[in-house]
Amino acid sequence: MVPGLADSNGVSFESVNVPGRYLRHYNYALRLDPNDNTSIFRADATFYRTAGLADSSWSSFRSYNFPTYYLRHRDYLLRIDPLSASSSLSDRQDATFRVSS
Question: Which domain of life is it from (predicted)?
Fold first, then answer.
């Protein structure tokens, strides 16, 4: 995790083994792309770390440019989907991550 490309209050996920490539959403699916330094890329690659939707001691990541969408895994893929505290427990668990260094 590095400071957000679109907002330093957020975070971006830069590849450790391929520096300069970041996780970004494209058609709601996450992919690892090189930073093309456009405003849309920076927005797609920025997330706000929040208290976990399923466990507040863990973390969830809200999209910078789709503020009701959260990073989550589904069907073995990372994507962003609209989620909230009223979403099903299973959906909230899919969007809750334990961050370690």
Answer: Bacteria
Kindly list the structural domains of the chain, giving each domain's residue range(s) and its CATH number in brackets, ordered by start. 2-94 (2.80.10.50)
User: How far apart, in whole angstroms, are the C-alpha atoms of residue 11 and residue 62?
Assistant: 10
Strand, helix or coil for residue 1: coil
10 Å Cβ neighbour count for 96? Answer: 22
Query: Tens digit of pLDDT for each residue in 10-48?
Result: 999 999 999 999 999 999 999 999 999 999 999 999 999
Distance CA 57, CA 51 (A): 7
Contact 6, 43 (CB under 8 A): yes
Residue 91, C-beta contacts closer than 8 angstroms, at least 6 positions apart: 72, 81, 83
